[in-house]
Amino acid sequence: MPILQYHCKNCGENFEELVKKFDDEVFCPVCKEKAERTYCGTVYSATGKPVKKCSGNCKNCGGC
What are the DSSP E strand ranges found in 1-64? Predict the structure, then answer.
């Protein structure tokens, strides 16, 4: 089960959540509104080496 980062547009809270699946709906612990997944922090490639200049959101690029 992955720990993913989320952001609440309603109150601005940033938090991490342990989820069963990547597409599970997650709600803000502060205001209880639906939160969006964020792609920030350190990203590693399949080899385990840090990837430079990668947001972690592969929808924006060709992947690592």
Answer: 3-7, 14-18, 36-37
Give per-residue pLDDT as tens, 27-49.
999 999 999 998 776 555 556 66
Structure tokens at 62: 């060709």
> Which backbone phi and psi does 59 adopt, to 5 degrees?
-70, -25
Q: Give the predicted TM-score (pTM) of the model.
A: 0.61
Is the separation of the CB atoms in 35 and 53 below 8 Å? no
CA gap 8, 27 in Å, rounded: 8
Query: Contact 63/44 with Cβ under 8 angstroms?
Result: no
Give the integer Cα–Cα distance in Å for 57 and 26: 18
